[in-house]
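Re-run with default settings, no changes from the original entry. Doing this only to confirm the output is reproducible before filing.
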Amino acid sequence: MKIFAAISTLVALSSAAQYSVSIDKDAGLVYTNTKCGKNYCIDSNLNGLHTYTAFSGNEHFLRILMSFNFPNGIKNASDIEECVLALPKPLTKSPNNHYYNLFVRKLDADFSASNVTARNAPKAGEVINQTTGDNKNAPPRINITAACKAAANRKLGLVIDASGTPVTIKSKAGGSDTRLYIRTK
């Protein structure tokens, strides 16, 4: 009986897998709530920059959009047991601590990184999770398991918003070290 239990445990452990997934594509958006006719007065795509900033304050918004493709080892999103987003330490340089709130929202992953603007971006969903951090340390890992399990076609799109201090991180073009850590059954 003990041998059967030991074999069952080994089979269960060998079927579990962990993955570290880097960004497939990203974009930075800047826009205002102020309208000039039917459109935002400022509505730009910052694609190709080495850094992107998340910030919302007054009438101005900076958003980071990112998309991840799940590895081939993940056949069904329902097999995901845990999924966390790990963002790097912000690039803000200041001798003082500056605090921020990060908000992660789900987004359709099929946006065009080179052409997306606030006007044509897929509608961001409700806040999946949020965390608080400072400019001296990487923010805590953000659990987004429910969003990963609900991802269509093994792709996940996210929007990063921030309040308080602007949060600037490296983009894919700048060598981003943002990761999605996934553990499956």
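The mean pLDDT is 85. The longest strand covers residues 60-69.
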